Amino acid sequence: MRRRISLPLKLFFIVFAFVLSCIILISQLSYRYVQKEIRTTDIYYTNQILDKVDQYFTVNFSSFQTILFSVETSVKANIDNTEVIKKQLRELYELNSNYVSNIYLIKSDLSILGGSTPTRIFDEPLSEREPLFEAADKNRRTTFVSDPYKSKYSGWTVTMVRYLNGAPFPMAIAVDLDLNAIEETLFKINKKEQMNLALITASGKIIAGFSENKGPLNIQDHTFSIGETSAEQILDTTETSLQLHTKDGIPVSLLKKPTEKFNWTIISINDESRLKAALSRLETYYIELLAAGLLLSLLISFFIAKYIRNPLYALKTKMKRVEQGFLTTTISINRNDEFGDLSRAFDRMLQQIVELIQRAELHNELERKLEIQVLQSQINPHFLYNTLGSISNVIRLGQIEKVDVVIESLISILEYGIADASEKVSLRQELQNVSDYIAIQNIRYNRHFHLIENIEEGLLDFPVFRMLLQPLVENSIFHGYNGGGIEGPITIHGYREGGIVIIEVVDQGEGIPTDKIKHILISEPSDVEVKRKRIGLNNIHGRIRLHYGEQFGLQIISIPKEITRVRALFPAG
């Protein structure tokens, strides 16, 4: 047999589990909240960095534009003096060599006048300059920015080119950007901020950045992809924040921001290393918190279990003595709490049990007599006699069509009446029985007792005593309508009022004198000793009170010559 666990021990485990669960839950929620805040802050911080980088390129763009305008002004002023132009190109280049790889003029034959040392020597025409010159010629009022390409003298570069308007022969001014300097700047930011930044063209090529990254990216021929997502797909989406996975399944967060001046996009890829580093610092704190929560749970559980164990064992001892038959047992628990109240209530309950045992025998005897009276009165010989007489009358009067109605109704009433009187039925069944009863009475007295049913929704299945309504309707016919001497409506109401269900039979007949109402529901000795022809209202009243308590039963309200209401009150639950 499995050993039973005592209640204090169960309570100990329950309180322990509850307190510990609360601490774990609060810790987890706090951890998740902090994680969310760190992630939000990280995204905000990354966006701030992207804004700063964009500002850096905006300033550089303005500087490059200034260089172009300076060269344009100088060339126009010295268009006939090539040596002066070369000197000024060399000086501008040397002044801005930290940012540019070359400053030069492209002639229509694709030869150049260069500012850097190699291009001052090697100025021969190159085919790589053809798209630059054509772009400048087509956009004479604006500055054209090329895609990154491999230049013979400037290496991996991007060229800003502008057509020289007003010159006597076609010519364009060009500046090759030093992408190595830009990339070095991005690498410094990556290292300092633990970020992974890159500058991407509209076609998805990498201008600078990502070179030091060895994790989520696949860099080849200055293009990249993250997992199954290509650079073009990343740039095509309108979302500025993306959650992607590398081919190894590593989750990464991607933020992108288009630059203001260039047709480029700044991209930041974060593998959550910074987030993990920040969260790892919190792990020790949460481990200590859980350890403290475990200890606190043990202490609280122990004291609560101890506080409940002593009075509980005292009550258990008292109940065992009662179980052995000692109903006068008294074991006092002197506590001003629920256990003290429970002990005193238990003592009062024992006193009431002794009284209830004495009263139970009387109630059982009364119930037995009432049930016998109901059984004896279910089939009313007088009613059966009058019904058969009604059949004889309708046959004699040639109203053959009414015979079937009377017989069918009589059969239904007999089948309904001979069932177990103690068995409860639905209100729906009682109403059907009353309907059959009224049909016979209408034919018997050649009257029209109109039956009206007004039942609240949901009460048709409410359980009631068998043969509850027929005596109430019979009372309306015999006393309200003078035993069929007059006719009128009989209304049956069913409704809830508070916690009580009220079933009410109303007639508009002669009514009941006020001085007789209080005697109707009181059983007289002759009512039990004499065989009655009908089930009396006091019988119904007694059965309801016996089953549900003295606050329930029948109520009679009558105004002579106007209306009579007989209400049956039941508990709603």
From TrEMBL:
It is a multi-pass membrane protein. One of its GO terms (molecular function) is kinase activity. It comes from the Bacteria. PROSITE patterns: HAMP, PROKAR_LIPOPROTEIN. Keywords: Cell membrane, Kinase, Membrane, Phosphoprotein, Transferase, Transmembrane, Transmembrane helix. The keyword Transmembrane helix applies. The chain crosses the membrane at residues 12-31, 285-308. Residues 306-358 form the HAMP domain. The keyword Iron does not apply. It is found in: Cell membrane. Pfam families: HAMP, HATPase_c, His_kinase. This is Two-component system, sensor histidine kinase YesM. It comes from Paenibacillus macquariensis.
